[in-house]
Sequence to fold (701 residues):
Amino acid sequence: MKRAGGPSPALSAAGEAPLGTLPGVGPRVAEKLAARGLLTLQDLWLQLPRQYEDRTCIVAIRDVRPGLAVQVEGVVEAVERGFRYRPMLRVAIVDDSRSTLVLRFFHFRATQVAQFAPGVRVRCYGTPRAGQHGLEIVHPSYRILEHDESALGEQLDPVYPAIEGIGPGTLRRLIGLALDKLPDESALELLPSDMRRERDLPSLREALLTVHRPAKDADRGALLAGTHPAQRRLALEELLAHHLSLRRQRIALQQHSAACLAGSGALPRRLIAALPFALSGAQQRVYAQVRADLSRPTPMLRLVQGDVGSGKTVVAALAALLAVEAGKQVALMAPTELLAEQHLATVRGWLEPLDVRVTWLAGKVTGKARAAALAEVASGSAQVVIGTHALMQEGVLFRDLALAIVDEQHRFGVHQRLALRDKGLGDAVPHQLVMTATPIPRTLAMAAYADLDVSSIDELPPGRTPVNTVALGAQRRPELVERIRSACAEGRQAYWVCTLIDDSDEVVAQAAQSTFEALSAALPELRIGLVHGRMKAAVKQSTMRAFKDGQLDLLVATTVIEVGVDVANASLMIVENAERLGLAQLHQLRGRVGRGSAASSCVLLYQSPLSMLARQRLETMRQTHDGFVIAERDLELRGPGELLGTRQTGLAGFRVADLMRDADLLPLVHDMADRLLAQAPAAADRIIARWVGGAARYAAA
Ligand code: ADP
Ligand code: MG
Fold:
């Protein structure tokens, strides 16, 4: 991974010093820290507490409540050492409020027992719970007090996320030592002071010290919620760093040139005239945005997001025609062979009547056919090339690739995208159009795709009816067989989707096979097809085609039908083990029905008992059809890392920031990024190096 700029010498000296330089960190401890990605002093500065313990005051035992951590102090009243299934020690302490609290231990040493002589003063910290005889604290942290000892903590005590093999006390001490080496503000601070003053932001140094060593009157609630100004300051800088790094990549891309595709638009107009439908307003708007991008001499990098069925393909085809009109080539890449084949059929149907040559290039194209396809691609006679990731393999040489279209981009990593980009000529790089049906919540899109422009097809073509969704326990399966029988008797088509916890192709394929057999036996009058990932592409393809053409009534399938497949007459879908699928996947699947004008239903079968999370997911599916709402819920339930794929974005690698919690900072992040890039580009590079440079190091590992 490239680093956008090196840290200054002052910074390297302080923050980048390896942990071996701290007293008490030998090779073994260093190794354990490294296993958690903690390599430098700075990594320890940014290792934030997940809890705080308040040892600055003593709570009267009378006021203690179950579930709330407290520090109490009292005199040992009685000690009981027993054995019931396992050894146990109970120590009753009483305080000035004349109330008693029990300290209970299951692991203890003889010396400990001896310590608790009646009359001894004990100060302890822990979370009380209701025991057999009143409140008790199990395994409190405690200290025996000397006669005159009374000093209390000055600050809230931080509790750090546990690190295997390193005790909490040691970790706290090491982080304390690292903090003692925090440089002066002048060496540490990277945000220009005017920006900080405007927003009343604490300095980085202040923020770190506040978070690690909060004063006893600090707002503990805010600290625990992660909303304290000190934490917000850190989150802000981290978000800023990620945003700047994406902006830098974008700026680097803009240094390249790209073909100006500024033709008359006559060819796309002919397609629009030939379509059996009128473009929706949203499609027209997005096409206009794409067209404006393509007419510029710098590479387009645009994400088109639109819910399943919103009609992204036709927008892609129109963009392709702009390139063809300019005498250039287009590549259209889909994540699965099935989907690529469907694009091939659709796009051929639209473009060949306009005398555009559409060439097929997938992994299964081999031998002579492959050689012929490669020759067409190299000579330029292939104007639009459609395929899977095989398009990016070495040996695929375009004569003049000007536009690369990537469908369902969440399946591809950034690197694959870049590989396609590199297939341009000389210094010119192809324009890129990326399409996704996984709507990305606005907040996330701003953070994740600062290197992309985003267009949304936020309107479905007219005439779609919402899908009626129900969730049923798996024991109701037999009823569904009847439901399929009657739906198909009315000339409708149905999907039966098999999923399993084990997503090895083979096991799922077997399950699909046996479901297929069971349904064939139960519904002998129906024409039933089977599609799964283990079948030959040609067989899959012909079964899908038969279903599409209405020659099959019921299609038993695995989630291979998830993306993009389009059959308007299918109006009933049954999803087995729906509780195991994520929201995005369920939404994608459901998008396969409700494409025609008939009222459609989707039945989500689940195995009891449902986990809390699964219940919420199914409930969300019943409540809404809006892909953006579903994506927002998905983000809440799963967190951004999973939504986008960690490796793809590095977003899950945030140390401090939390996109859900800190989303409101993003407008400020954008504003500050603009100003930094314009006024203090060197500071921008150092901010990237501080926060992202290290993360890139782990991502590359
Ligand atoms: P997706 O955005 O999920 O890729 P598709 O491009 O596959 O959606 O389009 C879904 C279906 O809607 C296709 O059958 C397509 O021909 C049809 N379609 C696209 N745009 C319109 C429109 N404006 N009016 C009616 N049907 C449309
Ligand atoms: Mg699609």
Q: What stands out?
A: Residues 312-313, 407, 564 surround magnesium ion (ligand 2) (CB under 6 Å). The radius of gyration is 31 Å. The longest helix spans residues 229-254. The mean pLDDT is 85.
